[in-house]
Amino acid sequence: MPSLASVLTPAELKGVRALGAEDLEGLLRIVPNRYVIPGALRALQDVHEGEDVSAVVHVVSARDRRMRSRAGSILEVTVTDGTDRLVLTFFLQRDHLVQWHRSRLRPGERIVVFGTVKHAPGPARAERGELPQIAHPRYEIVGEDDALLREAMRPIPVYPLRRSTKQSTMRSALASALPHASEAVSAIPAAVLAAQGLPALEQALHLIHAPRTADDIPAGLSHLVFEEAFVLQAIFAQRRALDARTPAPALEGAGPLQPMLEERLPFTLTGAQRTVREAILERIGRDHPANLLLQGDVGSGKTIVALLAMIRAVDSGHQAALLAPTEVLAEQHFRTITALMGDLSRAGRLDGHPQATAVRLLTGSQRTAQRRETLLDVTSGTAGIVVGTHALLSDPVEFAALGLVVIDEQHRFGVDHRRRLRSKGPAGGSPHVIVMSATPIPRTAALATLGDLDILTLDESPSGRTPITSFAVPEENQAWEQRMWSRVGEEIAEGRQAFVVCARIEESEEAPPSTLELDGLSPPETAGAGDAAGEIAPRGVEETARRLAARPELAGARIGVLHGRMSSEDKQQVMGEMVEGRLDLLVATTVIEVGVDVPNATAMVVLDAERFGVSQLHQLRGRVGRGEHPGIAFFATRAPRGSAVLPHLQEIAGTTDGFALAELDLRRRGSGDLVGEVQSGLGRTLRFLDVLRDAEAIARAREAAFAVVAADPELEREPALREAIAHRLRDADPRVERS
Ligand code: ADP
Ligand code: MG
């Protein structure tokens, strides 16, 4: 293909490069944000005030006059289609523009005109001889040539722009590039293309950049959508094929810890927990690495299932590692596991069980001496279970016999982490990997972004648990606000605990716009009033703690604060006090968003709730009601009455099913963000693919890609696909490193 510079003008080149296109193919793969699609042609007599019109008309007359108050002229062109007349009005600064329009709009000329009609027609205007108008219409001269008319009725692409590039510059750049579309190479093998009934890439690019009708656009896009899905699925297929060739320790030891641990559990497993446990044990019992995604709603009891799998590894003479995204969470897992295992976790100690293993915690903030001791236990194999944060991934950590890695709350981890952990497995082999997702992911989204994992779902919550009751609270209603705090006070008086979550650590900090604003949900009717939700500075942790201490409803409550700017020691201490019940109320940032498990906590207040995403709110309320007592959550907002915020919060409050909310979130935000959160390591966003809309294409792409990879694992016969995969992974890498 010729270079960009040889085909484009300097201005075009600048605009195109600003959009990230490096070559002609990259340019041709820039897809319009939208199209201006001319409405169906209408007769003028059927057109009403305020309607968008496309009409074929003849010019009757034209006249121009100087404006009185400003420089410039008004050009008025009267046109007719035989059913009615219309005036096209142009306000023009320069005389030469007046002349230019007049020279094109000569009486008798046939044109097609597009625009919005103003001035109600009707008897009144007829009496005054006033005609409906269109100000500054777009028009095309079509003469008596119907081919020109069809041309004029084509959808017009509207491209994304960067810097000062003009839309017309982008259009002309694409027009210059389009003749080279035949040289663009699709990643989809020809046989697949034919079997799928998709247009060839060259044709697809023409349909996208120069559609004749609105129907051409989705037909053209279908190629790029399928191609993107196909490349992703081919990556997954290759990873799975690699797994199938990689040895892993078969973890099939049946004792002695497992039966003893199950006896010690303070509850009976749910049916879903048992089913998923069996599926996991079956998979990690094989001698190739399992790659599992364990998902389940907040509070569905994923930790215990993971622990049972880790115990299986220890019973099989191997080690297991549990990774959490934060130290708070790693410490909590450590506490939970040692508590559940009791003397089974205290190998080598007087109070340990003779067959016990050792459970160790490894975090970045540990003191050197303690850390060295832990590392020794990891390397010698004394530690059967190691709980940690990212520190576990750092290079000096060597495991004696790592058989299983569990990654909790996946959305903070990239695949790259998974790959690095795998390198810590037995020589030449890989440990089994279980990823536990923080947020339920709708099935098609998981397939599109995490398709190299087998998905296991905990679809049942431990019985006897009352679902959390949630309320959206408009704080401008003082009675409601008071009622909210007295409910929190009542819980505390009953001996329960509460969380209050703030969007900021300090109130003075500059706040990014609220999530809702980013969602485009900000209420237009209040936006101009200067008091839209996004303009209220969010409340901070410290100030909120002080204000709550002064509230009569909370008199005497022991209040603590927790946020990311505290030292790990302080964080650990505060979390410890909360767990032990020495604090009644914890004011925190979203550091407590995922995973935190304080079974005695029953009340959750989220302040400035509109600043949090849907799944964030669901995660946050999942922090309460995890024990025997029912939980209550309040999503408080100071958004003005009548804004879109309250109904939105009410919708979340009214839906307790995390999967339903995840889908709601996806529909609202589009899949790009979700994919970013999932950090599949495949690039931050999907370019063309919409995981909900394109579910069916994803399934077809998956089947086709797996078949292609099965027949040709190294893709020797598909260089274009190989190149596309390399490109995708190369693009993804720097982002994964940042996480
Ligand atoms: P999540 O899936 O959100 O990570 P956890 O694993 O933290 O949930 O479990 C939530 C709470 O439910 C914990 O306090 C845990 O001890 C408890 N739990 C787990 N399984 C059961 C069960 N089968 N019956 C009763 N409580 C359970
Ligand atoms: Mg958890």
UniProtKB/TrEMBL annotation:
Indicate yes or no for the key word DNA-binding: yes
What's the superkingdom here? Bacteria
| Alphabetical list of SUPFAM superfamilies matching this protein | Nucleic acid-binding proteins, P-loop containing nucleoside triphosphate hydrolases
Residue intervals of the Helicase ATP-binding domain: 283-458
| This protein's UniProt keywords | ATP-binding, DNA damage, DNA repair, DNA-binding, Helicase, Hydrolase, Nucleotide-binding
Which residue ranges does the record assign to the Helicase C-terminal domain?
A: 500-667
Chain spans, region Disordered: 510-535
Q: Which GO terms describe its molecular function?
A: helicase activity
Query: Gene3D superfamilies, alphabetically?
Result: Nucleic acid-binding proteins (2.40.50.140), P-loop containing nucleotide triphosphate hydrolases (3.40.50.300)
Instruction: Identify the CDD domains for this entry.
Output: RecG_wedge_OBF
Instruction: List, alphabetically, the PANTHER family matched.
Output: ATP-DEPENDENT DNA HELICASE HOMOLOG RECG, CHLOROPLASTIC
Name of this protein: Probable DNA 3'-5' helicase RecG
Q: What is the lineage of its organism?
A: Bacteria, Bacillati, Actinomycetota, Actinomycetes, Micrococcales
